């Protein structure tokens, strides 16, 4: 019995080996799977993109123009490329740099894009107890490009007083006034008779038109507007009146 069992086991093992061999002989897909080594798709895409990138960079490098040589010389001293006898052509960037350098040095207001408008503060002095001297009214009027008499009339109207001009072109105002009061009056004058209402530029001109009207013309934007005439306030007569008759 034992011998028969051993023989049967040997036969089964042989049959299994033959079946496995048979399976190996007639299953070509299994052989293909073993021989084939799969590569992820991502690697091929990355390789392709890398090649495209390398090709693009190579084309850009080939198409890039060569850098222009640096032109030496001092613009202010007139040496090198800036010598008036030099026949070497100057490139565009250097000329543009020279233009803005000269513009900034000669006209800083134009170079910065904003025009500075500075007026010195009024210099007020006391003369006794009843008079105030406006010392630099001529300089301020010149900065504003306005007539001295027009500025004086506005001051007298706003302060409700009168005055005169001495030999040094100083305005002698009747009454005691502080510097802040004069500054406030000048500020109102600039807003009304100097500053352009359209572009806020102080570069304007005041001219007299028809029907005794004054017009402010802007030199920056070209706008034109009419301004009110200066109204003379009531001034009380001080002193004794002469008798009539």
Automatic annotation (TrEMBL):
Bias type Basic and acidic residues, positions: 40-54
Positions with biased composition (Low complexity): 55-68
Signal peptide start-end: none
This protein's record includes keyword Protein biosynthesis: yes
Molecular function in Gene Ontology: mRNA binding; translation initiation factor activity; translation initiation factor binding
Any one GO cellular component localisation term in the record: eukaryotic translation initiation factor 2 complex
GO terms, biological process: formation of translation preinitiation complex
InterPro entries found in the cross-reference section: IF2/IF5, Transl_init_fac_IF2/IF5_dom, Transl_init_fac_IF2/IF5_N, Transl_init_fac_IF2/IF5_Zn-bd
Bilayer-spanning residue ranges: none
Acidic residues composition-biased segments: 16-26
Keywords annotated in UniProt: Initiation factor, Protein biosynthesis
Biased composition (Basic residues): 1-12
Residues annotated as domain Translation initiation factor IF2/IF5: 114-224
Region (Disordered) location: 1-71
Protein family (similarity comment): Belongs to the eIF-2-beta/eIF-5 family.
Protein name according to UniProt: Translation initiation factor IF2/IF5 domain-containing protein
């Amino acid at each position: 019995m034992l011998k028969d069992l051993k023989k049967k086991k040997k036969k089964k093992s042989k049959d299994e080996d033959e079946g496995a061999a048979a399976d190996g002989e007639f299953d070509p897909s299994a052989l293909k799977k073993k021989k084939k080594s799969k590569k992820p798709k991502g690697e091929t895409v990355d390789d392709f993109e890398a090649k495209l990138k390398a090709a693009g960079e190579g084309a850009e490098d080939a198409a890039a123009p060569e850098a222009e040589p640096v032109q030496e010389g001092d613009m202010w001293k007139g040496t090198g490329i800036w010598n008036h006898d030099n026949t070497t052509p100057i490139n565009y960037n250097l000329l543009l740099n020279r233009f803005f350098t000269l513009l900034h040095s000669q006209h800083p207001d134009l170079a910065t894009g904003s025009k500075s408008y500075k007026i010195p503060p009024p210099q007020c002095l006391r003369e006794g107890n009843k008079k105030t001297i406006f010392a630099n009214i001529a300089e301020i009027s010149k900065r504003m490009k306005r007539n001295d008499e027009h500025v004086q009339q506005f001051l007298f109207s706003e302060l409700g007083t009168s005055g005169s001009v001495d030999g040094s072109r100083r305005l002698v105002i009747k009454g005691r006034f502080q510097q802040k009061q004069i500054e406030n009056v000048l500020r109102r004058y600039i807003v009304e008779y100097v500053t352009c209402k359209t572009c806020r530029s102080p570069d304007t001109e005041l001219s007299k038109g028809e029907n005794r009207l004054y017009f402010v013309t802007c030199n920056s934007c070209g706008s034109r507007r009419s301004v009110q005439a200066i109204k003379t306030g009531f001034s009380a007569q001080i002193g004794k009146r002469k008798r009539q008759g």
